[in-house]
Amino acid sequence: MILGIISSIIGILLFVTFLFLYFSPQFGAAPKGDDLERINRSKNQLDGKFKNLSETSVEGDMNYTKTLKEYFTKGNKIPDKSIPVNKITSEEIQATADTITKITWFGHSALLIEIDGKKIFLDPMLGDVPAPHPWLGSKRFNDTLPLAIEAIPQLDAILISHDHYDHLDYGSIKKLKDKTARFYVPLGVGAHLKSWGVAPEKITELDWWESASFDGINLVATPARHFSGRGILDRMRTQWSSWVIKGNGSNIFCSGDSGYDTHFKDIGEKYGPFDIALMECGQYDTQWPLIHMMPEETVQATIDVQATLMLPIHWGAFKLALHSWTDPADRVYKAASQANIKITTPIIGEPVILGEASPTSNWWEQYH
């Protein structure tokens, strides 16, 4: 009888899991039809799975038991109180002069870029938890956003680096899709957007080194060293990328998620120098050294792409690794100083204005 009860419980759990995986819209959709045919023509994939330029092990030397234990027990992985946020208004965004390039960090890798009078949002993950369900992830470090998602004004474009939950958020896309003119995404990611109600004609998918232009802004999808996937069986089925954003007076690089590799130097030689590099710095570990950069590598990547200024991203919002939440900022700040690389470390919502304002306070030291 006991075995029967246990078997029934396991069966129910498996059935509930199946229903959740199959019917929850948060998981998105798989590419099909013309989208799948284009993926199959890409030289950056093999047998339907995308690959990195260099051989890359996603798991690395992962010890799952040790990692799970340390994730919940070791170190100050979250701040002891809500971290500071600079509040902004939609009117401030609307009033930005066309001659100014302004970048506002919304935490993690979410960035609002105002360039040549256009508003571009990169990886607008503005939800509370980077997971398909609130029970499956760690809550955001800040209690409030610089600007409520409902108050964000009309956007000219949204750029997505890849389909992981901390970059592509179902709830955020649902709220932003009708106030966004265009979406630019790596190959395959458009299938998720379409399943969430984004009109196909608004979506442009790009392979590595492919470019697109709108209203004088040039975009290039450039390589990154990472992986993709939102479910159990879809790893590597959609592409991941970094981005080049070039306007009339400013040239911007965004690394997306990436381990260190030679692609940074290639990008710098092809499209640099850059006025600013928005560089991944966080969620790293020695167990997975090929898919996320250590802070010292973040600085070297900035040098490789030939950037004048670096803004470290992919930190300061969520617990996704084993390091303390301040470790990325402490280490990258030190490494940048030693390498004589100019760095800007705004609090969330504090604007960086190229040529005018690049905040450099060590604000995180007050929130251990």
UniProtKB/TrEMBL annotation:
Xref: Gene3D superfamilies: Ribonuclease Z/Hydroxyacylglutathione hydrolase-like
Q: Among the entry's GO cellular component annotations, what is one?
A: cytoplasm
Q: Which Pfam families match?
A: Lactamase_B_2
Q: Which GO terms describe its molecular function?
A: N-acylphosphatidylethanolamine-specific phospholipase D activity; zinc ion binding
Cite the InterPro entries for this sequence: Metallo-B-lactamas (IPR001279), NAPE-PLD (IPR024884), RibonucZ/Hydroxyglut_hydro (IPR036866)
Kindly give the SUPFAM superfamilies that the UniProt entry links to this protein: Metallo-hydrolase/oxidoreductase
Domain named Metallo-beta-lactamase: which ranges? 120-315
What is this protein's record name? Metallo-beta-lactamase domain-containing protein
What organism does the UniProt record list as the source?
Cochleicola gelatinilyticus
